[in-house]
Specification:
The termini are far apart. Helix 3 (53-59) packs across helix 4. Helices cover 43% and strands 13% of the residues. The protein is built from 10 helices and 6 strands; from the N terminus they run H-H-E-H-H-E-H-H-E-H-E-H-H-E-E-H.
């Protein structure tokens, strides 16, 4: 990785220096905003496609990396807000298997973002009760990023307020391929009958098995596609698309997505 100092937006720089430790006493929502929320009908697992970092930077004449840094700061705000709402798991699309096709310079910058974010946010995560985990193929990442992730996951494993699941080096088709490879190994070990191959068994081999399927999927930047994200798991998720670019997404936007979710009637094919 580069040893050059990183140029960060002021908000990101202040955060990484420890200035934005948000505690339980902070609530980003007013009583009026929360009054329209049905606390008995909250999504327990929300998935987010965080799209628009590069466009946000381009609109401001900034290099793409600064868009990624600002996006990382927004994630901090959104996770804190989700915990305040009572959401238990947030899974965010951080780096896809297709993202390796980007320029070497941008990939290197993104890996820097991951390493520094995971390292500098470790103590704030502990203070806020955020438990870190990951889906995807960790082995494909640089060793320093792997080390930062493993250290932060271990440091936060006792936290119980909310799960932050980073989808890094993740693609849904690759996840399903790996799940079937595990099923093949299971078959070779103990034998599987045709009737054993149930949806429940397949789901148990997916990366997300410990958290269950998301009830709500949020995509920023107005794009109307799933981009190879949680294709099995979102079969019955409500989908909420906003035109806002990810660095402009706020806790209020999260609240609006949850309210929209609550207004929809889940039919499950009926």
């Amino acid at each position: 990785m580069t040893s050059e100092p990183l140029a960060l937006p002021p908000r990101a720089l202040h955060s990484l220096q420890g200035a934005r430790y948000i505690t339980d006493s902070h609530n980003p929502f007013s009583e009026n905003e929360l009054s329209v929320l049905n606390l008995t009908h909250l999504p327990q697992h929300v998935a987010i496609i965080m799209d628009g970092n590069r466009r946000w930077a381009k609109q401001r004449g900034l290099p793409p990396m600064l868009g990624h840094w600002e996006g990382a700061e927004v994630l901090t705000d959104v996770i804190s807000a989700a915990a305040q709402l009572g959401i238990k798991t947030i899974t965010v699309y951080s780096f896809s298997t297709e993202n390796w096709q980007r320029s070497g310079e941008e990939i290197e910058s993104l890996m820097d973002v991951f390493e520094i974010y995971l390292t500098r946010k470790r103590e704030p995560m502990i203070l806020e009760g955020i438990r870190l985990d990951m889906i995807g193929d960790l082995s494909g990442l640089p060793q320093n990023v792997q080390n930062a992730f493993l250290a932060t996951r271990q440091a936060t494993e006792h936290c119980r307020k909310i799960n932050l699941v980073l989808a890094i080096n993740y693609g849904a088709r690759d996840e399903i391929r790996r799940a079937f490879a595990k099923l093949l190994a299971l078959h070779q070990k103990q034998g599987l009958r045709k009737e054993d191959l149930t949806e429940e068994l397949i789901a148990s081999q997916l990366d997300t098995s410990k958290w269950g399927d998301p009830e709500l999927l949020i995509r920023t930047s107005g794009e109307m596609r799933m981009s190879n994200f949680l294709l099995w798991q979102i079969s019955y998720a409500e989908i909420y698309v906003t035109e806002k670019l990810w660095p402009d997404f706020s806790p209020t936007d999260l609240l609006e997505a949850v309210i929209a979710y609550q207004k929809r009637k889940k039919r499950l094919g009926i």
